[in-house]
Amino acid sequence: MQGQALPGFRDFYPDELALKNHIFATWRDVARRYGFQEYDGPPLEPLELYTDKSGEEIVQQLYAFEDKGGRKVALRPEMTPTLARMVGAHAQALKKPIRWFSIPQLFRYERQQRGRLREHFQLNMDIIGEASPLADAELIAAAIDIMRAFGLGPADVRARVSDRRVLRTLLLGRGLTEPQLPAAFEVIDKSERVPRDAMAAKLRETGIGKRETDAVFEIAALRGLDAVAAALAKVKGGEEAGEPLRQAVGALEAMGLGDFVLVDLTIVRGLAYYTGIVFELFDTGKSLRAICGGGRYDGLLNALGGVDLPALGFGMGDVVLGELLKERGPADQASTKLDAFLIAVSGEDMAPVLKLAHQLRDLGVAVEYGLRPAAIRKQLELAAARGAPRAIIVGPDERAAGEVVVRDLKAGTEARVPIAKLSGLFH
RNA sequence: GUGGCUGUAGCUCAAUCGGUUAGAGCGCUGGACUGUGGCUCCAGAGGUUGCGGGUUCAAUUCCCGUCAGCCACCCCA
Question: Whose C1' is closest to the CA of A294: which nucleotide?
Fold first, then answer.
């Protein structure tokens, strides 16, 4: 063995690249249907683009180094800062709301695990300059429609939707104080994975009383818009705080996507900059990591790009999605498809095969032929292995009649076809 | 970065208590089959047992280190 790719990096063999291309094509198609425009930025950025926002400790999570000009640089770990810069620079000229998407390759220096590598491609869809909850619904719908475009339904994937404003209002309304909120958020975020006792202990350490601790667990257990609304009705300002979430979920229901949506306040998302509705897509078997995550980050553009615009977006990586599709998607239909495989019966048939192959290729037909003389059975074997739907057999007898034999490789039937009529097979 | 588990052919796995030349299926190449694939049969190629060291007459097997993968943290994408 001559070594392998760096840990967390991938070689794409043809089957794998075909899957990746299929994913990209589907992403682009759904983005197009939603009226999003594609953009891109540099894969290498100034280190400060990331440290300014997230602090120095993020450097150990980055591929960061000094270039030959002494500049501190990093391979991009996320697209949002680049987007913020680009939008910030042209903010005056761009008609709002901005609807942009990108498929950057992102890098992170972290120990790899299943579904989590050091490099991946991530669809980013963002809407900038629109505060309406309909924008939130629009993005969640796009994420869901990508799943549908892959043939996945509510039995396969769901969107868990929450709103930090709702969570915040509920917690404050149940007696928690502002300084206690981060700890409460963290506990709620992990409430599914970590034992309740450990979480209660964590809350106690933060100085949160028993009654408030019970409230935290109560809130974390809420499921569905109605349950959340009922809880909100009991606290001050609750109805107002719940309005955006209610509208966004209502819009999704109006689109007919209600079966995909699950209101669940345990979706907090790690990033501190989220300010409103947040959501994740996950497989219903819960055997994989989140397929997609995002939300509203109204303050971030101001902090990064210097323009005060409301914004929201999501990221969807190719790794977890690829695993999900391999697990339950239909068979790989994405491989390069040959239209025909040409077969020369004898050495004298080689030149006519070359001529015919070239004529067909000029017409846009995908053809292959054996690159060395071989028995017909060998050539047919190769034709079948290549997945060609038909073989075109050129032999002395056929040539004398100005014909070829067209063999259907699936049905096993064949017919003689005049060479002049051959191109009609492919239109 | 921390901890646990696992590393044998391209893939999935086997190899008795530490014992002689590390095997099988699938895949790959060739042949049986000189104008017709899928089936069957035969043969072949492919291994520094992840790598390095130690113990031993002898290591795929036991020990240590290291690298890689998986899992849990951390962190989130």
Answer: B77
Each residue's pLDDT tens digit in chain A (427 positions)? 456 789 999 999 888 898 899 999 999 999 999 999 999 999 999 999 988 766 666 777 899 999 999 999 999 999 999 999 999 999 999 999 999 999 999 999 988 888 889 999 999 999 999 999 999 999 999 999 999 999 999 999 999 999 999 999 999 999 999 998 888 988 898 888 788 888 888 888 888 888 999 999 999 999 999 999 999 999 999 999 999 999 999 999 999 999 999 999 998 877 678 899 999 999 988 778 889 999 999 988 988 878 999 999 999 999 999 988 887 755 555 466 899 999 999 999 999 999 999 999 999 999 999 999 999 999 999 999 999 999 999 999 999 999 999 999 999 999 999 999 998 998 7
- Distance, CA of A7 to C1' of B20, in Å: 39
Q: What is the spatial distance, in angstroms and rounded to an integer, between the CA atom of A9 and the C1' atom of B21? A: 39
- CA to C1' distance (Å), from A311 to B1: 34
CATH 3.30.465.10 at A340-425, yes or no? no
Closest nucleotide to the alpha carbon of A314, via C1': B77
Phi, psi of A374 (to 5 degrees): -155, 160
Provide ipTM, 2 decimals. 0.89
Q: Which CATH number fits domain A14-328: 1.10.1060.10, 3.40.1400.10, 3.40.50.300, 3.30.930.10?
A: 3.30.930.10
Protein-proximal positions, strand B, CB < 7 A: 1-3, 10, 28, 30-31, 33-38, 48, 50, 67-77
Measured in angstroms, what separates residue A365's CA from nucleotide B29's C1'?
30
